[in-house]
Amino acid sequence: MKTYDILSNYYQNYDEDGRLRSRHGMVEYLTTMRYVHRYLTPGARVLEIGAGTGRYSHALAQEGYQVDAIELVEHNIEIFKQNVLPGEPVTITQGNALDLSVIPDGTYDITLLLGPMYHLFTAEDQKQALSEAIRVTKKGGVIFAAYCNNDATIIQFCFQKGMLFKEPYTTLIDPVTFKASSTPEELFVLYRKEDIDILMEGFPVTRLHYVGSDMATNFMRDTVDNMDDATFQRYLDYHFVICERPDMIGATHHILDVFRKE
Q1: How many whole angstroms separate alpha carbon 214 and alpha carbon 236?
Q2: What is the spatial distance between Cα 170 and Cα 255, in angstroms, rounded to a whole number?
Q3: CB atoms within 10 A of CB 131
Q4: pLDDT at residue 1 above 60?
Q5: Rg of the Cα trace of the chain?
Q6: Whole-angstrom Cα distance, residue 117 to residue 84?
Q7: For a Cys-Cys bond, which of 2, 114, 140, 211 suits 146, CB 3.0-4.6 Å?
Q8: Pair 84, 91: CB distance under 8 Å
Q9: Cβ distance 54 to 73 under 8 Å?
Q10: Which helix (H) or strand (E) holds 165?
Q11: What is the pLDDT of residues 38-69, one digit of tens each?
Q12: Domain span at 16
């Protein structure tokens, strides 16, 4: 089965929008938006590459920013269009993160690459997606790239869920380093910081933030989902204090790499 078909089948049966609206999913969403808002300026043009069903694109457009979205999967595009409000300054186009040739260099102030790096299975494709995101961003503009973290998956699936000695984990996980490899059938590529640092070498950018988007949240999902409003707010306060701490980021499920184009 081709990668597109695998992704299409997955997203037709998965409610990503609903995940980001759940209490535990809101931690990742609010963290990402918190950093995006640091760099938004009046009149900023925003591009979201791999927009999914549009949770971020719609939110930013409804704040008044002009947002252009690119999405690969037709099912996601259909839902995205259904959620467009009258007068909302947002567009959606089917496209691939590896080829944004329809977009001129230096078009956008803010570029979001919050999904594609999850599903690119070669270093060549990963670097190409980053290169395209950087190319279409203005000098001085800011790019936000999201990744799935290797070690949170090892902890959760191999040990918490008891999958360590079961396929495909026995085949895909290095027995010495516990570094996971992936194929399209596994859907998600898992990264460590050193992998991301290698990918970023040579690009004309400066890292601004390296963030654990959800930190401990998915290890205690039920607890977070059942928090009352006051406790959840204090949990967010704590999360925002620790989400850039280098000694803690390694266990987060999702990573947000924020960098400025020079």
Answers
A1: 10
A2: 25
A3: 14
A4: no
A5: 18
A6: 25
A7: 114
A8: no
A9: no
A10: none
A11: 999 999 999 999 999 999 999 999 999 999 99
A12: 3-261
The pTM of the full predicted model, rounded to 2 decimals, is: 0.94
Angle at 94 between CA 92 and CA 96, to 5 degrees: 120
User: For the chain, what is the domain count?
Assistant: 1
Give buried/exposed letters for 133-164 (b at 16+ CB in 10 A, else e). Answer: bbbbbbeebbbbbbbbbbbbbbbbbbeeeebe
- Nearest C-alpha neighbor of 48 from the set 81, 64, 70: 70
What is the distance between the alpha carbons of residues 187 and 76, in angstroms, rounded to a whole number? 16
Query: CB-based burial of residue 45 (10 Å sphere; 0-12 exposed, 13-18 middle, 19+ buried)?
Result: middle
Q: What does 54-75 look like in DSSP terms, one character per residue? A: -HHHHHHHHTT-EEEEEES-HH
Burial of 233 (0-12, 13-18, 19+ CB in 10 A): exposed
CATH of residue 192:
3.40.50.150
